[in-house]
Every structure is written in structure tokens, then in C-alpha cells.
Batch of 4 targets.
Target 1
Amino acid sequence: MPLTALQSAFEPEPPSSVWVTVPAPRLSDSGWHEARPDGHPMREYTQLDTRLMFDDLCAKLEQFARA
């Protein structure tokens, strides 16, 4: 399992991003998303810590390059 700064060891959710829980939509035959009130719960992120995500990506790439 790769290490990541996006998830705290003490918190099960990424503390630097904000999300809401919504029902998962379905994908129509034409490729569009359709509302589905009975869909399984999924996270819809409304605010992302892009600096942290980019730093995390760079750290993983450096680690991969060393391997």
C-alpha cells in the first residue's frame, strides 16, 4: 500500500478536503449521468487541497524513480 499525505493515520477521511455524501448516479446509454436516489452513497468533493495532492504525487514519483 503506497504511503500518502492525503489521509491522516488518525483520521479515516482526508482532513484537508471537503465533501458531501450523495447517491451515486447511473450512466445512461448516451453516456450522461442520471440522478438515482437509490444509488449507493458516494463522496462528492466540493473542495480539494490541490497543493497537497500535487506534493503527494511528486513524492510518489520520486519514490517510484528510486525503485
Note: The chain has a mean pLDDT of 84.
Target 2
Amino acid sequence: MSGDLGAEVVVRAAAATLEKHSDINLLLVGDQAELDDLVSRIIGDNGRLRIVHASEVVAMSEPPAEALRRKKDSSMRVAIDLIKNGEADGCVSSGNTGALMATAKFVLKTQPGIDRPAFIAELPAIGGSLHMLDLGANAQASAEQLFQFAMMGSIVRSDFQGVERPRVALLNIGSEDIKGNDTVREAAKMLQDSTLNYVGFIEGNDLFSGKADVVVTDGFTGNVALKTIEGAVDLVRHFLRQSFTRSWFSKLQAMLASSVLRRLSVEMDSRNYNGATLVGLNGIVIKSHGGADSVGFQHAIDTAIVEVRNQLPQQIGSLLQKEAS
């Protein structure tokens, strides 16, 4: 109910999901009257969709602690409670990120052997894509927590791309073993001694080179990197638009290059990568970008579906036991 573009985006994404997946049932959590009207207008009668009423909404600017303590009937809390009670297999929300993380951690708890959950998302890269975590759940992380992030990231990558042994790298200020702070170097030693396919340090300018399938860092660095990437994409689009509209000749060049530009636009479309998973919980919770449209939100739902089908929490638990033995 609290995404930047309102509940209609979610209902349209639900309509697309029901059409795409014949074996999926959806629960829309929020204000009954508003959702009834939207569903009636956009979807109509569908036995695979049910509305679950929630009387409160967590505002985007609301402090997470306040939302957790005071709004126990918010759409966010009710949705996550549905997972805990076994009525739902996963939750997708475009609401307040801090409140979503706090609520999910409080209700679902972290898995045994996981200190903190982390946000992971797929990003475009040369030759395909990469998965990166943490993207903002933890401003700081210990070496042990970075190691845990690497294990979870390896499983997610394997689920989405079918890579048997994903290449895992640590984001650092240099690729040499002596570079970085004590925490990163200690995490590197732990990864070297593990069963993961650790390939060493990776620098920011190599993120999209295709050298790694999973890139691990703390949430502060990861979130800064993610926002920088988003800004860089917008800058490239701005310069392309400016260059191709400068004169009649440049407009002609744009027409000649239209097929290439369309393909580039699709490949750089952030909607195709929307949906960050909060890994490490006893349940599946996906954070959609607050400003995502129905196409982006539907991609976030698809992310949840893949993780439910692959039983992501159970896989993480199994790998943790393997590494501990």
C-alpha cells in the first residue's frame, strides 16, 4: 500500500503474474475497499487471488522501530505474518525498506548460523549478470558476516542462473591480497578455506566485467555502489538523448541507430532487475523499488516465485551445516 505509485501498480503486476503463471495463488494485503475496486476494474473474478484486509499502512518516512511497535495491523506486518503462519510462501513489498527489514527479522527471525539478513539483487554485467550483496541491510559487517553473505549469495546465484559453482568475489579497493582493511582480509581467508568458489578481491571498475558471479560487501558500500550505478545509467541516457537531439544530422543518426538504441534501452532497463531478496530469514521476503511500475513489480514477484520453488531458506540451512561440519 505504500509504494511511491500506489496500490494500482501492485494489482496490475498481480494481473500479469496470474496470466503468466497458471499454478500461482496471490494474496493482496491492504485496504479492502481500495483493493476491491482495483481488482474489480483490472482483474475481475479470479479464484487464484484473495484480498486480505489490513487497516494500517507504514509510511515511507516512518521510523522502522515506530512501525514495528505501533502498526501491528499494517499491510506489511500482516503480509509477513502470513508467511509465519504458513498461509503464504513469500512476501513482496515496495514499502519502507527499514520497516520491512525490521518487521521481517522480528517476525520470521534469522536462520540458525546467520547473524544478520542481507539484501541481494541481480545486476547487469558483460556476458550476463551478477548478484551483489549486501545492498543496504547492514551498514557494517564483520568478517564472519561477510562469509555468511557469500554463502547465501552463492546459493541465490545458483538458483537463478543454474551455475553449479558460482564465482564469489569480495569488493575491495584493490585486487592484491594486501589491500583493504582487516575485516575484508579476514573474510578472504575464511572464503579461501571454504568449499565456495572464491576468486579473490574485485575492484569497483571490474564489477561488470564478468569476472565474478557473486560480489560481496557490507551494506554501506553496497548501497553506495548501487545508487552510483543507477545514477551512471541515468547519466548515460541523458548524454545519449542530448547528443542525438542536438541537430538535424544527429537526429538522422539516431533514426539510423534506432534498433541498437532500443536494444540498449532494454538491456539497461532497471525494471528487468527489480527485486532485492532479504536473505538469511526463515522465509522469503522481496523488496521492490518504491518507484517501480507494474513491470518492475511483476519482476519482483517472479523473483519470489523462483526462490519459493527452489526452497531458498532450506538450501541456505543445508550449506551452513555443510560448512560447519
Note: The domain at 115-279 is CATH 3.40.718.10 (Isopropylmalate Dehydrogenase).
Target 3
Amino acid sequence: MDQFRQMQAFTAVVQAGSFVKAAQRLDTSKAVVSRLVLELEALLGTRLLNRTTRRLSLTDAGSEYFERSRQILDDLADANAAASQGALHTAGRLKINAPLTFGNLHLAPLWGEFLKLHPQVELDITLTDRVVDLVEEGFDMAVRITRQASSTLVSRTLTHDRMVLCASPGYLRTAAPITQLDDIAQHSVMAYSWWSGGDVWTFDDPQGKPQSVATHPRLRANSGDTCRAAALADQGLIYQPAFLVGQDLRSGRLVQVLPQYRGPSIGIHAVYPSRQHLPGKVRAMVDFLAAAFQTPAWG
């Protein structure tokens, strides 16, 4: 599979005349295309392309390899077209990666419905907050929660959420008053290890200007559920997405702190390696999730 992608990248570079145009043709990044070609040259033990700042040219070995690679790829495309209906066929194993908490809370209830709609699809789901390499680890797609969509993957936004600063009523009754953002620095906080800002929490003030405060975590965890549990046990402040704490806020188990300061918006995206020849099972899942999150349950 890796060599197939390497051959695709190499032939695209030759046909397009540059790495940039090849990346556009393959709907990926220049860095990915360059890496694949380098890996192919390393695998073959020979240089296929001469690269200068102005132009690319084929070596003798590259010229011969290009002709054979192009024929192999053309034959494969013809075989696929003859053997099936291609992207219209929704069947086979669909390997998905998703964040742990979001996957358990908001994706797990959806899998059964999807399987009913697509009885020929098998789901293989891995939940982890680690950012996996879809191609190297063999995932068809992933659901990712991030403030900025990936620049190297095809991304479709499913919905948006927002970070919320909150604590339990029990903690707030006994702790020092919180009347301004800087007060947070003096409080016990439960920090999520994967937060992109580290120990610095950012907000928009009532005028919409970004503000930040450095926190001093009493507890640090790579699980939002762990942070939430500590907050419910009256141990301090947490800064978590609404999809995790929304029900607690509605029930009163947690209370929003400094609501005039808005946490940053975060996107929930479906991502996959390429738009070209997108398998029907991936397209079906992305469309299904986009429809499911038109009105988020935590909204």
C-alpha cells in the first residue's frame, strides 16, 4: 500500500511538472508528496528525479520507472472499474479514530444507527486523544477536535463547540471570590494535558479582545473525564468543552465562572487522507456524522 502511494506521488510529479501541482492533483500537501517520492527512491536505491530550484527532470532510471509505474496505475484503475462500482459501493471494514471522551459520549450512540443503514459495512473504532497518522496507522478517517483544521488532510467540519470555565457550587462556596480573569491564577485548577495552550488559558473579554491567564494545576490529566470528576468533587476549576460539561451545567452540578469571558471556539471535524477516489464507506460515514451533528445534543 505504501509503495502504491509512492508510485502515485511520483507519477503525479512527473505528469504535473512540480511537487506543488502534484500535491494539488492528489489533494494533499507538497510535504507529503515530497516525502513519498523520497521514500520511493530510498526503497529502490536510486535517484528518480533531478531537482533544481527551477525545474525537475527524470534520470534514466526515473524515465523507465515512470513508464512502468504509469502503466501499472492505469491497469489498476481499469481493473477496479471493471470489478466493482467503485465509490458508489458502501461496504467493507471502516477503520475510524476518534477522541476518547467525545467518542464515548457522542459517537458511541450513533454507531448502531449507521450499521443499520449500511449492513455491509464493518466498523473498527479506536478511541484515543493522541493524534494518529491516518496513513501510516491504516485509518480510513478520524474525528478530530481542534481550533484549526488540518492542512495536510481533507477536512469537513461537523459542528463547533466552545470551551467553558466552570466549577462546582461546593468549591465556589469555600474558595476565594473570582471577579476577574487574573483571580484564576490563585485557584486550584484541573488541567487537561493535551490543551494546545498548555497551562495558559485564553478567553475573549466582553469587548471581544483576547485575554489569557497562567494557571497552576493541582491536577493534570490526559482525560477530560478525570478533570470533570475532580471538579464535581469540589476540587477546583476546569476548562472543558461544552460537549463534556453541558449536562452538568444544566443540572447545576457545575456552574459557569466568569461567563462574560468567552472561551475559544473549537471545531469538530471529520478528516481523511484524500478526496480522490473516496471510498463509499468513508463518504457515507462523513455524510452521516454531518447530519447527526447539525443540532448538537449539548447545544
Note: The chain has nine helices and 13 strands.
Target 4
Amino acid sequence: MAKLGFKHSLAAWRGTTTSAIRIWWTSHGIAVLRLACAVMALLAVLKLGEEFRRLLLDPGYNGAVDTRILNQLVREWFDGRPLYQELVRAVHPPATYVLLWPLLGWLDLTPARWLWAVTSLAALGWLVYLIVQESGADTRLECLFVALLALSMNATGVTIGNGQLIVHILPMLLFALLLLRGSRGRWRVRLLAAGLLLFALVKPTISAPFLWIPLFASGGLLTTLLVILGYAGLTLFALLFQESTPTVLAQGWTERATVVAATGGYANLHKWLACLDLQEWMLWVSLLVFAALGFWIYQHRKGDFWILLGVAALVARLWTYHRVYDDVLILLPMVALFRIAKREASTEGTSIAAGLLLAATVLSMLAPARLEHFAWPWSFLFKGGHTLVWIMDLGFLLHRARRDRNAEV
């Protein structure tokens, strides 16, 4: 009886709290959104302005640092240099160098930086358009807020300044999955989607987990096979420019990747295993998580498309080595949370929980990346705070997907 009374009291308190939050949001929600948009817009202008300057004009090492590295790696791969034996930074699989050649392989560094800036700007605009269209936002203020989710994230600025890949990858990946969602078997659409997914595999640690969605959720077995065959073909083509055998190249690549994963990045399984001196388990644990994601998506393949995207993005961020620029992945679960928060409020307060989690995630993603390298406790708060918020987001989306699945049974 006491236990039943406690549950009844808890339910009553939750209902009262939910009602109070709804009433407060009805009165102050527009003002809060306006303030949030003003702050996020200011941060976006300051951050993106500085990072485009760093990408294009900074002559130092940090100016377009990753574009500089990738430009060197792509050119030297096709010149036949044994990168996996000589350069620590050669951590990308062979097919990546083929996919990057159109942007970086035929230009010197300065024109390559400008081409990267132009394509980054176009890709960022494409990404903003897609998330606004898919968000369910129905006022100009809400559309502005969703757009600023992408533009104000600290990770977006770092990606631009470094000349990293994720701003190019994410809109291709998202557009391909959206095409497959509504393709209805049209082979031209599926072929286009396969091409976009193939280009998105320029960085498999970001895009590979999303391949479960077309395989199971969209009925795209043929599309997935085309992507796999295309990636295998690009790999074989890349190997033609190296004298070493495929076995030697594979061993060199995995050794380089393991070293980098153990020493760099944050908030991912590889880093946590390295801290426990379990580097030898990195590959197997990542494969286990990858397989678990596939099993989960198969079970929920008929569920909310954006919940599937959000879960895949969070797993992609956590399953292997990533640095702060790859935090742009968290944009997808933020859009998923926004969509849930926009729906009609349930008696269980699901939309309010989604809104609170969205607010916490937005605040965490605005934190300056330099805090990662500050002395304790700032570095701990930065890394630990991001990890905690992402795991809470993942737990919420998993719970919501399970509830939706049970409701259909």
C-alpha cells in the first residue's frame, strides 16, 4: 500500500510539474526563443567569421590545418609514397584518398583552401535547408532557431577553420536517406542515393553507422549493396598507386589508426578503452556496438525516421575515435528532440522532457572547444558534460522508440 501510495504521489507531482512548465512556456516561450536566437546568432557570426578567416587567410599551422594535411596525403598517395609506413597522420582508409582527389588532389594548398571554403559554405547552406524543412518548425522564429542549431554550434566553426570533412558529409548523408525514405522503388532515386552515400563514406567513422537505416528501415538492400561494391572498387583503385601488398597496407593503416585513437579525441569508446589500457579491444568493441545498432534499427525499422537518425548519430559519435569537430553529428539528435518537443504535449510530459534535453544539448554545444585543453576542472566539465548530455539524449530517444514500438503492437 505504501509503495502504491508513493507511486500515486509521484505521478501527481509529475503531472503538477508538467502543467506548471506548460503554463510557463505558453506565457514566456516566444521571449525565450527570441533571446536564444539572438545569442546563437551573435555566436554564429563571431565564430564562423573567425573560422572562415582561419581557413582562408591564417598562414600559421592552425590555419586550415586538416585541409593542409589532407592535401598533402592525397597528393602523396597518388605519387606512390608509402603513407602508412611514414606518416603518423595517415589514418584514413585507401578509398578516402580517391574520394578526396576532386577537391584536394589536383590543386596546390592556397587554391585548395579557397575551393574548400566555397564547398563548405554551400554544404552548410544545404544542411541548414534540410534540417529546417524536416524540423516541423511552423513559424519564422522556430525556423531561425533550427537553422541556428547548425550555425552556432562550436563544432561547426571548428570544422570550418580546420578544413575538416563533416560539414561536407552530413548534408549528403541526410539527403540520401531522405531520398530513400520516399523513393518508392524508383531506381534513379536509389542510384543517386547510393552515390551520395558512397561519397559520404569519405570518413566511414561518421557515415558507416547510418548505412543500417537504408538497409533495414527503407528496404534499400540493393542500394546498400551498390554502396558496398562501389567502396570496394574505390579501394582497389586506390591500391594501384601503392607498391605494398593489401595486407601490409591494411596492417599499417590499422596500426596508425590505433595510435591516433588512443592518444587523441574525447568522449568515445576508443578513448575510454585507452584510458583503461585496453587498446587491443578497440576494434572488437566498436564492431560489437556497430552490430548492436544494426540489430536495434532492424527492430525499430518502422519507427520514427528522425529517432532512427538521432540514435545512429549518437552511436556514430561514441563508437570510435572522434575529435571536437565531429560533434556536428549531435545536430541530428537535436533536430529529433525539437520534433518531439513540437508535437502535442502528452500527459506523460514527453514533449517537455524533449524540450529540456534539447536546451541542455544546445547549451553544451555552444561551449568553446578550447575548454577541452584547459586545466582541471574545465577540461573535465567540458568532456564529462558533453558525454553526460549525449548519453541522456540517447537514453531518451531509445525509450521513446521502444514506447512507440510497443504502442503499435
Note: The two ends are 31 Å apart (CA to CA).
